[in-house]
Amino acid sequence: MTAREWIKIALLLTPGIGLILFFVGSVIYVAIAQSFGLYNLAGESKLSLEFWELLSGKRVFARSIGYSFFIGVTSALLSVALAYPLALWLRKPFRGSLLIGALLKAPLLVHGLVAAFLFVNIIAYHGVVNQFLQAIGVFDGPRRLQNDDKGISVLILQVWKNMPFALLLLTGAVQSISDDVLNAGRDLGAGSFARFRRIIAPLSVSAMQAALVIVFIGALADFSFQTIVGPTNKQSLAQYMTFFSSKGRWNEAAVVGVTMMGLSLVGALGLTLAAKLVFGGRK
Amino acid sequence: MHTSTLNRILLVCLVAVCAIWLIIPFTMAILWSLVDPSEPWTPDKLFPPAMSLYRWQNMWENSSLKSALFNSYTLAPLAAILTLTLAIPTSFALGRLKFPGREFFKMVAILPLVVPGFVLSIFFSSLLFQLGLTGSRFAAILLAHSVLFMPYAIRIMTVSFEQVRDDHVNAARDLGASALERWSVAYLPALKPGILATLLIVFIQSIEEFAIGFIIGIPDFVTIPTLLYSQMGQDFVRPNAAVLALILVVPNVILLLILERLLKSANPAMSSGKG
Amino acid sequence: MIKNILSGVAALAISASAVVADDLSSMSWDDIVAQAKEEGEVTFANWFLQDELRAAMAAFEEEYGITVNIPEGDNAAFNNKLLAEAGNETGDIDVFPRGFNDFENLDLPGLFIKLDALPADDGRVTELVGIDGQGFAVAYWGNQTGISYDPARIAAEDLPQTPEDFAVFWAANPGKFGFNYEKGGSGPSFYMNMLANLTGVDLSVPDDSPERIAALEPGFEFFREHAENYVITASNGDSITRVSDGELWMAPGWEDHVAGLQVRGEIRKEIEFYVPSMGMNGGGNGVAIPKNAPHPAAALVFVNWLTSAETQSMFNATFGTAPMHAEADDSAALVPNEQRAYRQPWGAQPFRGTIEEVFIETVVQER
User: Fold this and answer.
1) CATH number for region A36-279
2) Which pLDDT tens digit goes with each residue over B58-69?
3) How many domains does chain B have?
4) Quick one: which of A226, A61, A104 has its CA closest to A155?
C-alpha cells in the first residue's frame, strides 16, 4: 500500500467511520469512565471498581444479562429462520407477490409501541384471543396471558417487528444469486435443503450476518416491549439501566450500559462467526 | 406439484395469516378509538355501547399530533438521504478495496448500535451543546440520527458493493465506458436494492427514534415517538392510544406501497438480465 | 460529564440569570404582569395528563393572553433535561413540576429562583408531607394513593384494612389483587406501608444500613409467602384498566388518576377508591422556576395562577385532585374525608429507594 492509497482510503472512511469515531467514541469513553466512578454528574469523581463489584454481586444483574441475551439471540435466530424461506419464495415475482411483500413488511412501519399496544389489547384477560380460545373450548375460562413468565410475548413482538427487517436484507442478497448457479445445483441432484445449505446460504452469508447482528442488538437492548408485555419477574438490561438512571445513579447505570455494549459486541461477533462457520465463506 | 399451484396455496395461507396478524389487531383498535367518553367499553359488551368520533377530534385538536407528524416526516427522509450520502464512500472502501484493518473498521462501524439509546443521547446532546450545534434543533437531531443510523447504511451498502460483479465492471471498462457510465451500468443496478433498503431502514429508524428526538427536541420540537411515549408508555389509555395508533399507520401504509414498487423495479435479476 | 463540559458556561449562566431573578424580585407585581404579557408564552413541563391540562389552561390564557406550552415527555426525561441544560444561559423550561418529596433531592438554590416576587397568599401550600419548599417550590397538585376496587365484587365493609386482611383476601380470591412495583408509585406505596405495618420499621428515617433492611425481612417473607395469590401489573394505568375490565377486583392507584379516567369515560364509573387504615402515601406535586427560564415573568404569573384557590378548585372538579390551597373547594374528591387521616408521608430517601431495590430483588424477581 502506498501513502497515496492510504490517503484515499482515509478520505473515503472519514465521512462515515470518522464521524462515528468522533461522536460515538467520545460517548463510549465517557460511559466507560463513569462505570469506574469518573465523570460524575454529582459528587466527587474518583477511579474505583466499587460499582462493578457492587453490581457483579447482584443476582438481579446476572439474571437480566441472561434474560436479555436469551431474548436477543432467540429473536435473531427466529427472525432470520422465518425470513429465509419467505425471501426465497419471493425471489421471483409472481401474481400477488407484491401484495405479500407489502403485507409482510407492514410491521416495519408500525411503531414498536403501537405494536405492543395492539398486542396487549388482543391478549387481554377478556380480549379476542381469550374469547376465541374459550369459544373453541381450549380454555375453560379466561386466562392471564399478559406478562407471561417465559417472555413469549416479547419474542412474538420482536419477531413480528424484526422478521420483515431480516426479510428486507435477505431479499436483496437472495435475488442477486443467479439462476444459473441454482439450476446447476439442481442438475447435480441437490435437494432443496442441500441447495440452501451449500449454495444459497454461503452466497448470502453476508446479508445473513447483517440481519442476525442487527436484530440481535436491537432485541438485546429492548426496553419498550419488555416494560409493556415482558415478564414481571425478570428485567431486561435496558430496563435495569433505566432503573438506575432514573434515580440519578449514573455510575451503576453506566456499568449496566457498558455491559450491554460488551454483550452486543460479543453476541454480534459470535453470531457472525457462527454463521460463517456453519455456512462457509462467501463466493 | 406444479409451482404455480403451490404458489397459490401458499398465497392463500399467507394472506389468511396476515389477515389475522394485521386485521384483527387493527379492527380492535378501530373499535376502541370509537368509544364515546359517556360510557366506557367493558368486556361484557361485544361492541362499544356508545360510539362517536369524539376522541379523533379531541386528539387532532388537543395534542401535539399535527406538529409531530410534520416534524417526523420531514426529518426522516432527510436523515435517510444524509446518512446514505455519508455512508457511500466508506462502504465503497469497505466493500471494494482491500486494505489492512478492513475487518477492524467494519467493527468500528457498528459502534453506534452497541451503545444503548439513552446513554448515547444524553452524552450526545451535551457534546452538541459543547460544539455549539444547538442553534437549530432540527439540524442537531438530523446530524445525530445520521450518525446513529450510519451502521445500518454502512453495513447494507458494504454488502451491496461486495455484490457488484467484477466481470460487469471490467466489461464496462473494456468497452471504453467512462467512470460515470461504469457507475451507472455496472454499479447502480447492483446497488439499487441496497440503496433503497438503506433509505427505508434509516427512514424507519428515524421515525422510531425516541431518546435523541426527545432530549434534544423538547419542548418545541415534538416528534412522533415523543408523542407516543407520553400517550402510549406504560400508562396508556386504550381509546386514545387506539386513535393515535391508527392515525400513524395511514401515512406509513401509503409509504410502504410506494417503496414496494420501487423495490420491485430495483430487482437486480430483472434489471441486469439473468443477474 | 455534563457538568464537566459545561462548567465554564455554567458559571456565566448562573451569574446572568441571577441578574434576571433579582430584577424580578425588585419589580412590582403589576410590572411583572406587564413583562409577562410581553413575554407572551410560558413552558410548563408537566409530565402527566398533558392533553387534558392543555385544555384546562384556557382560563389562564384568556385572562392574561399568555400561551401555555405543555411539552410531551415524562418526569425522568424532564428532570434529565433540566440538569442537562442547567449550564446554558437560557433553558427551555419555565415552570418545572416534580413530586413534592423529590424536590428534596434537587439542588434548590443552584437550580431555581426564589419565589419571593409572588404576591403574598397564606393559603398556598409551601410545605407538604414534611418537605419544605424553602421558598423555591410550591404545591399545585394534591394526590393520594389508595386502592381502587370493584364494588360489585367486594362490599365497602369487607375491604381489607391491614396486612392480615389483605392476606385473607388474597387467599380467598387468588389472582384478583394486583399491584405495580416499579413505575408509577401507587404499588410501591402499597407494599411500603404493608412492610412498615408488618415490621414496625420507621420509614421516615433516611438511614439505609443493612441492619434496617434486615429488619424488614419478615415483611419481604410475607410477600414471598403469598406470591401465588397476587398479580404484578405493569403500571398504574395497567392496574386500573384491568380492574375496570373485571380481571382484577382490587389494585392500588392514585386518586386523581382514577378520578380523571372516570371523568373521561376511560374506565367504569362504578369503580370506587379507598385508603386502608394501615395507611398509604399521599402528598402532591410542586412547581419551581429554573434560573434559566426563558420567560421568567410569565412563569411567575403562571405559578401565581396555578396555585390560586380558584385554579385549585377547578382542578378538584376537573381532575379529582386534593386541592393545594387552604380556601379551595374539595367536594369532588374520591376519597371520603375521614380516610384522609390515613395519609402517610412518603418514606425518606435513601431508605425508600433501597427498599424498592431490595423488594424487586428478593420478592418480585423471586416469583
Assistant:
1) 1.10.3720.10
2) 888 777 788 888
3) 1
4) A226
